[in-house]
Write a structure and sequence with these properties.
Distance between the termini: 23 Å
Structural class: mainly alpha
Radius of gyration: 16 Å
Shape: globular
Largest sheet: none
Number of strands: 0
Oligomer: single chain
Number of helices: 5
Number of domains: 1
């Protein structure tokens, strides 16, 4: 891997780590305060909205530094973020003792799961962030 590609991957990983930390803190806050106050379904919907805003704001704020100036590199960053977040979600679910059926339900909108939409947003977030910054692809 050439140095510019390696640097891009490192920056994409760093941005994902920031997103993962923010989403983790957000999830803890949601569980501690929103779920007891609103109930699980309402807290989940509100949590999805807030989490989406967090991802988009980070993508916007870091889009210049990320250096994904083409649609291809934006999609590469988004694919990396999606795969890393999927792996994190699966690992956290298993670490919390959830079975595969419970984890799968988090990805199934028919069962009230929003994770699939969150992963799609994660994939397109670099494009949205660049668009918001006016770093349109060449």
């Amino acid at each position: 891997m050439k140095a510019p590609a390696l640097a891009f991957c490192g920056r994409a990983l760093a941005v994902w780590l920031l997103i993962a930390v923010l989403e983790t803190v957000h999830g803890i806050v949601r569980g501690l305060w929103l779920v007891p106050a609103l109930g699980e379904p309402a807290a989940q919907r509100l949590g999805f909205a807030v989490g989406s805003v967090l991802v988009i704001v980070v993508a916007w704020a870091t889009s210049g530094w990320l250096g994904a100036a083409t649609r291809r590199t934006q999609l590469q960053a988004g694919a990396l973020w999606l795969l890393l977040m999927l792996g994190l979600e699966l690992a956290v679910g298993r670490a919390r003792g959830f079975g595969w059926a419970r984890i799968a339900a988090e990805f199934d909108p028919r069962q009230g799961g929003w994770m699939l939409f969150g992963l799609l947003l994660m994939f397109f977030a670099p494009i949205l962030g660049a668009w918001m910054r006016r770093l349109r692809p060449a």
